[in-house]
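We emphasize that the prediction below concerns an isolated chain of 62 residues; any contacts that depend on oligomerization or on bound cofactors are therefore not represented. The input was used exactly as deposited, without trimming of termini.
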Amino acid sequence: MIYPMPRNSSEEKELRRQAYECEKKGLIIFHEQQGYDKSTLNIFLVNSLKGYEEFLKEDGLI
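Result of the prediction step, given as a token string:
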């Protein structure tokens, strides 16, 4: 995701959070379209969003 240069660390975290949410939404849609079992969604998200560990922890996925 391309976003403007953050002015401070809180703005940077907010922009990273937005990028995470956008990617997560797309992955959930992909997972559903592929017809995968819903019980594997969390594992799929954790494996696919490795660069966002802090947000995965906040969401309770890891």
